[in-house]
Amino acid sequence: MTHMEIKALENAARHTMVWTEGYDGETHYAGVLKALAPALLILTIAAGLLVAIL
């Protein structure tokens, strides 16, 4: 085994040990709505401006 392979294995092991966040099996609708709210607001304003131009 080469030095590069050993280093890659050490880094891979270290990387998986640090990863602590996991999938909790729930759908977080409130978080999704919070993330989409600014985009929906911008789209609503843009649609309103387009309708006003007509």
Task: Give an overview in words.
The chain has 54 residues and is mainly alpha-helical. It is built from two helices and no strands. The longest helix has 25 residues. The radius of gyration is 23 Å and the shape is elongated. 0% of the residues are buried.
Task: Offer a few descriptive terms.
mainly alpha, single chain, 54 residues
What is the helix content? over 70%
Oligomer description: single chain
Class computed from helices, strands and strand pairing: mainly alpha
Low-confidence stretches: none
The overall pLDDT average reads 82
Taken in chain order, the helices and strands follow as HH
Major sheet characteristics: none
Structure summary, number of beta strands: 0
Number of helices: 2
Distance between the termini: 71 Å
- Radius of gyration from the alpha-carbon trace, in angstroms: 23 Å
Strand content: under 5%
- What sort of overall outline do the alpha carbons produce when their principal axes are compared? elongated
